[in-house]
Amino acid sequence: MMMDFLNAFILLANFVLVPALAYGAQLALGALGITLVYGILRFANFAHGDTMAFGTMVVILLTWAFQAGGIGFGPLPTALLALPIGVVFTALFVLATDRLVYKHYREIKAPPIRMVMASVGVMFVMNGIVRFIIGPNDQNFMDGERFIVKAGAFRRATGLDEGLAVKSSQLLTLVVAVVLVAALFWFLNRTRTGKSMRAYSDNEDLALLSGISPQKVVMVTWIIVAGLATIAGTLYGLDKSFKPFTYFQLLLPMFAAAIVGGVGHPVGAILGGFVVAFSEVTVTYAYKKFLTYLAPDGLAPDGLMQMLSTDYKFAVSFIILVVVLLVRPTGLLRGKVI
Amino acid sequence: MSQTSRAIAGFALMAVLLALVGIFQSWNVMLAIFNLSLISAVMALGVNIQWGYAGLFNVGIMGFAALGGVAAVLTSRAPVASAWEAGGLGILLSGAVVAAIAALGVTIYRRMGKGPLKTLVMIVLVVGGYFLVRTIYDPAVSAIESDNPAKSGFLGGLGLPIIVSWGMGGLFAAAAAWFIGKVALGLRSDYLAIATLGISEIIIAMIKNEDWLTRGVKNVTGLERPVPYELNLQNAAWFQDLANRYGFDVIEGSSIFVKLCYAGLFAAVLIVILVLCVLALASPWGRMVRAIRDNEISAAAMGKNVTSRHLQIFILGSAVVGIAGAMLTTLDGQFTPGSYQPLRFTFLVWVMVIVGGSGNNLGSVLGAFFIWFIWIEAEPVGNWLMATLTSWMDATSALRLHLIESAQYMRLFIMGLVMLLVMRFSPGGIMPEQTVRR
Fold first, then answer.
1. Which residues in chain A have their CB less than 8 angstroms from residue B343's CB?
2. Which one of A124, B67, B170, B179 counts the least CB within 10 Å of its CB?
3. pLDDT score, position A337
4. How many angstroms separate the CA atoms of B62 and B73, rounded?
5. Is there a contact between A331 and A261 (Cβ–Cβ < 8 Å)?
6. Beta-carbon separation of A131 and B409 below 8 A
């Protein structure tokens, strides 16, 4: 009986807990970027998914160059070495799009919907560039040690039937996400620039009256967003794989995460990311084996016991979004945008 | 340049371009482009109703067009008796249960006092209801899908003429628009964009996976036609006489004749909708709607219910897009859920509206013709350009092959650039909106 409980728990941990934690961290980083742009620049950035794709593409190309040149990072993925350079390139690209596209709409005080439309245009330009350079297909750029805990080794060590596998990319995602979020919060709360960004986000007019430079705020925001996007995209690509279309599809869960948590609140974005990720994974998981372990003999379920088929995993984010918009549009942490 | 002269110049240019295609490529190709332009023009009109009249940004156009396609299948296909026997009752029953639970939920939501008990009851109702419906729904679905899955495996439709489906497409799209409008209108404009992005993905996911309704990715081929079949024409005596008298090839002639019939039908629909739009805009309703758009706060202060007007317009625009979607599926003669890529077509229609003239009905139509023409002709031109540019490279080099293969993505890039440039430097488009001068 005890063995059954342990087996069931390990099964859940392996197929639900660990993947959801990793996916949640990736979504959280993406949603952070979206919520920063929403809060400070005051528009929904539809180009964020393709910004992630662009950043990841640069990292992949550099990784390939490093791998070809024989440079490695030991047990860690080579992509980590390429990451800082990737962030710099993406930041430059994003600053260029701001200068060329969004700045004009800020100056003429265009309604936010115009900036959203412009971001859709930017999304397609980025989309075209990424596909042109690297193509639309799957790219796998993971190297180094794949697994930290292997399923077989776990089974042998514990004597259970179910194994728990932890991929290095999953642990990496969590570690990097924690470090990045801590750094971001330190920046936003302790440094002058961070505080001026928060002030600008809360009340633009008062912030300008206090002498805060809007150009600096905007520039720093885009640089941080580029960093978050590149890192989130790279972690997602290491964990799953890189395919430009997938990054566009991530827009919906990321928007849902930002809105659920409360738009404009970084903590909300992180919370929202995990809410969306856990919902997606728990709702589309087939609980047949889990229930077979827990149920008394003979009462094992017949069907897959899946609440929604995996094809509908984006439907989960959508349902969450609809529920939030109906019940509490300001989100869990009462974001400012309504 | 005045509006009318711009319009005449624009359409004249379009006619010349199409004639050139007809002469240098073929009349079949030209008519294919023309037909799709007509359908895109209807979609552009629908988008223009939402954007031009109310400033609503709908990113989910493909989803509404897909609903039009579903309507084409569900209206024109004959009902499959065996499937209905196997699972039809189950499906109807689960639909009834869903409706009952929804009604119950709405009543409880309205009647109960606020508090944790209400939230708990709602959650229990929704979750419990979901599992209850699944116990009825799942067996019905597997029964239907296992009924001759290779040829059929779905419920079929109503067996009505396919032209009826054009109206049904409008109704389906209007229903989806009502739902999403109720959820997302009245909040900030960005939220509508995100919500329409979501509903489009959901609709496409549903039509791909609910095989019992639409055959999913197995596709529905051989849809009924409102025009004659080429083969029948080729064998008809009157057509052969016509060919002999005017000296054209029977086979090519039949193909052109069929396309001309489609063109006539589509043009008729386009003209009717265009006339209705122009009349509506010139009416008191149209003036009120534009007043709301131009100064929402004043309009609200005057007592106009802005949200319900927006909902009205959103539904109307989406219905028009649904009609276009049904027309598209009729032209294809088959329903392929896989062809509805969530953003590609949506984006093209937006470029059409922005370039043609947001807020201007005739402008949107003109924009549709131009952009579709550029999009289609860009492929051979782009391939030729890329091949010429890389001709100095070694013929088998990986880089050259990659560049030639990637030429198609430059279309996306160019279209994005066109949209951004027009939005920045000429926000009104080719034919800006006419403002009434007093």
1. 248
2. B179
3. 55
4. 17
5. yes
6. yes
Spacing of C-alpha A18 from chain mean position: 15
CB-based contact (8 Å) between B420 and chain A? yes
Inter-chain touch A311–B424, beta carbons under 8 Å:
no
Contact A113 B410 (CB under 8 A): no
CA-based nearest distance A90→chain B, Å: 18
- In chain A, what residues touch B194 (CB-CB under 8 Å)? 44, 252, 255, 259, 321
Is B197 within 8 Å of A309 when comparing Cβ atoms?
Answer: no
At A195, list the tokens. Answer: 């505080």
Question: Given an 8 Å threshold on Cβ–Cβ distance, is B188 in contact with A338?
Answer: yes
Q: Using one digit for the tens of pLDDT, what is the confidence trace for B66-84?
A: 999 999 888 888 888 887 7
Residues of chain B contacting residue A99, judged by C-beta atoms under 8 Å apart: none
The DSSP letter of residue B221 is -
Which residues of chain B register pLDDT less than 70?
A: 1, 343, 395, 434-438
Nearest to B416 among A43, A121, A329 (CB): A121
Q: Which of A117, A133, A324, A327 to mutate to probe the B interface, most B CBs <10 Å?
A: A117
Label each residue of chain A as H, E or C: CHHHHHHHHHHHHHHHHHHHHHHHHHHHHHHHHHHHHHHHHCCCCCCHHHHHHHHHHHHHHHHHHHHHCCCCCCCCCCHHHHHHHHHHHHHHHHHHHHHHHHHHHHHCCCCHHHHHHHHHHHHHHHHHHHHHHHCCCCECCCCCCCEEECHHHHHHHHCCCCCCCEEHHHHHHHHHHHHHHHHHHHHHHHCHHHHHHHHHHHCHHHHHHCCCCHHHHHHHHHHHHHHHHHHHHHHHHHHCCECHHHHHHCHHHHHHHHHHHCCCCHHHHHHHHHHHHHHHHHHHCECHHHHHHHCCCCCCCCCCCECCCHHHHHHHHHHHHHHHHHHCCCCCCCCCCC
Residues of A in contact with B342 (CB under 8 A): 248
Which chain A residues contact residue B412 at CB under 8 A?
124-125, 127-128, 131
The size of the A-B interface in CB pairs under 8 A is 131
Query: Over the stretch B288-313, which tens digit does the pLDDT of each residue have?
Result: 888 888 888 888 888 888 888 899 99
Chain A residue with the nearest C-alpha to that of B197:
A252
The per-residue pLDDT string of chain A (338 residues; one tens digit each, 9 = 90 and over) reads: 777 888 888 888 888 899 999 999 999 999 999 999 998 988 899 999 999 999 999 999 999 888 888 887 777 888 888 899 999 999 999 999 999 999 999 888 888 888 998 998 899 899 889 988 888 888 888 887 888 888 888 888 877 777 888 888 888 899 999 999 999 999 999 999 999 998 888 888 888 898 888 899 999 999 999 999 999 999 999 888 898 888 988 998 999 999 998 888 888 899 999 999 999 998 888 888 888 777 777 766 767 777 787 878 888 888 888 888 888 888 888 766 54
- The ipTM, to two decimals, is 0.83
Quick check: helix, strand or coil at residue B185? strand
| Inter-chain residue contact A120 with B347, CB threshold 8 Å | yes
> Which residues are CB-contacts of A64 (< 8 A; sequence separation ≥ 6)?
A141
Q: Is B198 on the interface with A (CB under 8 A)?
A: yes
